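[Meeting: bench + compute handoff]

Bench side (C.D.) handed over the final construct sequence. Compute side (W.E.) agreed to return the predicted structure before the next meeting so the bench team could plan truncations. Sequence as handed over:
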Amino acid sequence: MQLIVYTASPAFKRFIGKHLDLPFELRTQLGPPAEEPDCIHLLHLSDMADACYEWLQQNVPGRTTLAALCSDRPNLQEMLEGVRLGARAYCNSYMASNHYYQMLQLLENGQSWFPPQLLEQTFDLARLAAARARPEVDALGDLTGREREIALAVGDGKSNREIAQQFEIAEPTVKTHLGSIFRKLEVKDRIGLVLLLKRG
């Protein structure tokens, strides 16, 4: 494995030189990537962010270039932009040596490496986006006003008798309404109705 580290930061140069016990080439300016397919390019975002993104855009998509980004202050926006441009890893510039070795080994084996806490934030965003992408449908939209009230009362855990007392109707009428509610909402029973209401 060949490693090229791109940074103009004296502090990061010192850190990486002290904490990585393996040979690497240090470059202070971004240039053409190495031709070797197993070469890993580690770009220090914190002192040349715009140039790093431009370098990724020019040298990674559609090629076998392996690129990893490191940041002094890792954040989700940086990570997502790096991934969009083809970076295979994103990390804290000053993370522990064993994490660096793990990241480099994963990259060498064709895998990726990202901070677990940022991955969790990414999954949260994805779940939120998926929820927003679903059409906003009112689960009770097909019900009459009375059926809606009864359905919500069932959702609150009320029995048929309590619902009958609340709306001053007979229990058999509540059962008739529930039959209609189950049919319209395509649920089998009260439990199915409650689950539907909780999802909505």
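W.E. noted at the follow-up: The chain has a mean pLDDT of 88. C.D. will use this when planning the next construct.
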